[in-house]
Specification:
- The protein has 124 residues and is an all-beta fold.
- The chain is built from no helices and eleven strands.
- The strands form two sheets. Strands 2, 4, 5, 6, 9, 10 and 11 form a seven-stranded mixed beta sheet that branches. A four-stranded antiparallel beta sheet has the order 1-3-8-7, with no helix packed on it.
- Strand 7 and strand 8 form a beta hairpin.
- It is globular and about 45 Å long.
């Protein structure tokens, strides 16, 4: 189990930017998947972006070209840079971890560790 702590949520105007952070201890596994998910009221949790241990990234079509997932050099913080934010991006955002490189990183039930979430609100 890897402890994950999100921060950086808040209110942003449509078209604006926000950066979410997810602090975690240094991961001892050689292969792993880190990801950002979001869940709006009444909706299922959906995968937003994933990052593999080798730096490969995967994005949901709805955020491609607007969001960027990254990890700091020390590999103890995961980020989600959100640009050109849209009203439909409003949700609770969670970071998640799973050892191993997941073939389908957008499936929430595959992850073993979750943060508590950080809320993103978007005003138009």
């Amino acid at each position: 189990v890897v402890q994950l702590v999100e921060s950086g949520g808040g209110s942003v105007q449509a078209g604006g930017s926000l950066r979410l952070s997810c602090a975690h201890a240094k991961i001892s596994y050689a292969f792993y998947t880190l990801a950002w998910f979001r869940q709006a009221p009444g909706n299922e949790r959906e995968g937003v972006a994933a990052l593999y241990d080798d730096g490969t990234t995967v994005y949901a079509d709805s955020v491609k070209g607007r969001f960027t997932i990254s990890q700091d050099r020390s590999k103890i913080t995961l980020y989600l840079q959100m640009n050109n934010v849209k009203p439909e991006d409003a949700a609770m955002y969670y970071c998640a971890f799973r050892y191993g490189a997941l073939r389908y990183p957008s499936e929430a039930n595959q992850y073993s560790s979750w943060g508590q979430g950080t809320q993103v609100s978007v005003s138009s």
